[in-house]
Design brief:
475 residues, alpha/beta, Aldehyde Dehydrogenase, Chain A, domain 1, Aldehyde Dehydrogenase, Chain A, domain 2, 2 domains, seven-stranded mixed beta sheet, 15 helices, 40% helix, 23% strand, globular, binds nicotinamide-adenine-dinucleotide
């Protein structure tokens, strides 16, 4: 763990093992921190806050540029570590490292663009000044599915704003977190400004993060259930809260869309990270006139997606994070098939030969999915593309919106008015129009409803780490 600028063991002396999800092999062991370690990390961040928050924006930008350079220089090693620890294919790991580094550069630039305001008063002898200042110590909790970019998406804007931080990495991917903190150490981050704790049991750490009076803000990315609980406790202690949670993205193919292009987009998007992405499409609404063309192209594409070890050439889908994840996917598919869905490709676990020791599920295409099946409502987080055929164009936006989640949605259409109506009508934070990758460091990422509160990336992302202070000046 990295606390006060030093690499430390857990106070308890305990450690836990990290496994390669493709092979089950133990690849490292890391400190198993507890509440004491979390409190020490918060105290270190608190002590460092005065110095960091009063440093110049230019100095903070320089640090982030150096971190960007270091991450870029070692991107290949970082990508290999990610594939080993998290399982995604090497090509996807490289793309994630690039995305992660983009946040460092974007917020290096954004650090120098935090401004204030000079406001008029109704009184001639009064002036108002508005100042934006860092909120204070930020506690961060991150997931395993994007184990580098989910860190920089929080750390870069927080540091740019002048906050200090304590981050608890996901128990499945502490090595990627360690590599990110090594970069910040080498970039010359002052002691205590960034602190890392690792733990097998996240609960005691979460308790410290949501109750310690020195923590000003909690930012969490992970499941809706955990985020809801932590946000509730943190808000009860009047801490600021941002939560990026789960999703259940609709993917709507309109009658005027090119169904082949839409199917190619759907197949590329669905199997990214083995479907373990919060913006992964979970309901593909295809107009009945395109069902044949869409499904035929999907069958072709999905049949060619090869599961395997992310280091092997040609592998498009790596392992799932653990056995529980495989069981959840299997349960949803079995439930859907039991209720009449048609598994056109896949539809089963992979457990023989090269798959014996890892956590694999076959790339799957399910046709004939409908309401009443678990997969229609629950986040799958696995390599399953569920296709729903619809007939009434006037109803499809309401169908797409019929979920408590509100993170991402996708539409395929060649009609400009349809695109604008869908963009306006869908109740989601991110809409891809003929676009399966509507994300970038410069763009706001976040959801509505059960998908969370707040935005990351873009100028909005730094606002999450700033307080507004008003000065009234009587002349
Ligand atoms: P998770 O909620 O189980 O874990 C996320 C993090 O929370 C981990 O670091 C974990 O250790 C920690 N955690 C779990 N229980 C805790 C507790 N009681 N107290 C404190 N910390 C606790 O989620 P996961 O399975 O790791 O991640 C998958 C979920 O994350 C999916 O639902 C996915 O949609 C979501 N996600 C959302 C986004 C987004 O930006 N909206 C991005 C990536 C993942």
């Amino acid at each position: 763990m990295f606390i006060s600028g030093e690499w430390r063991d857990a106070r308890s002396g305990g450690s836990f093992e990290v496994e390669d999800p493709a092979t089950g092999e133990v690849i490292a062991s890391v400190p198993d921190g507890g509440a004491d370690d979390a409190r020490a990390a918060v105290a270190a961040a608190h002590d460092a806050f005065k110095g960091w928050s009063t440093s110049t924006a230019a100095a903070r930008a320089d640090l982030l540029y150096r971190a960007w350079q270091l991450m870029t220089d070692r991107s290949e090693a970082l990508a290999e570590l990610m594939t080993r620890e998290q399982g995604k294919p090497l090509k996807a790991s490289r793309a994630e490292v690039k995305y992660a580094a983009d946040f460092l550069r974007f917020y290096a630039e954004e650090a120098t663009r935090v401004t204030g305001e000079w406001l008029p008063s109704a009184r001639p002898d009064q002036r108002f000044l508005v100042l934006r200042q860092p909120v204070g110590v930020v506690a961060m909790i991150t997931p395993w599915n994007y184990p580098v970019s989910m860190l920089t998406r929080k750390m870069a804007p927080a540091l740019a704003a002048g906050c200090t931080l304590v981050l608890k990495a996901a128990e499945a991917t502490p090595l990627c977190a360690r590599a990110v903190f090594e970069i910040f150490e080498e970039a010359g981050t002052p002691p205590g400004v960034v602190n890392l704790v690792t733990a097998l049991d996240p609960k005691p750490i979460g308790e410290v993060f949501t109750t310690d009076p020195h923590v000003a803000k909690l930012t969490f990315t992970g499941s809706t259930a955990v985020g809801r609980h932590l946000a509730g406790v943190a808000a009860g202690n009047l801490k600021r809260v941002s939560v990026e949670l789960g999703g259940h993205a609709p993917f709507v193919v309109f009658p005027d869309a090119d169904p082949v292009r839409a199917a190619k987009g759907a197949a590329a998007l669905k199997f990214l990270n083995a479907g373990q992405a919060c913006i992964s499409p979970n309901r593909m609404y295809v107009h009945e006139q395109h069902e044949d063309a869409f499904v035929t192209t999907m069958v072709e594409r999905v049949s060619k997606v090869r599961a395997g070890n992310g280091f092997d050439d040609g592998v498009g889908v790596g392992p799932l994070v653990d056995e529980a994840a495989v069981a959840k996917v299997a349960d949803q598919v079995d439930d859907a098939v039991g209720r009449g869905a048609d598994p056109l490709v896949g539809g089963h676990r992979l457990g023989d030969g090269e798959f014996t020791r890892g956590h694999f599920y076959a790339p799957t295409l399910l046709a004939g999915v409908g309401d009443g099946m678990k997969i229609y409502r629950e986040e799958t987080f696995g390599p399953v593309a569920p296709v729903i055929t619809y007939g009434d164009v006037d109803e499809v936006i309401d169908l797409a919106n019929d979920t408590n989640y509100g993170l991402a949605a996708y539409v395929y259409t060649r009609d400009f008015s349809t695109a604008i109506r869908a963009f306006e009508g869908l109740r989601f934070g991110i809409i891809g129009v003929n676009d399966v990758n509507p994300t970038a460091a410069s763009a706001p990422f976040g959801g509505m409803g059960d998908s969370g509160i707040g935005r990351e990336g873009s100028h909005d992302g730094i606002e999450e780490y700033l307080e507004t202070k008003l000065g009234g000046f009587a002349l």
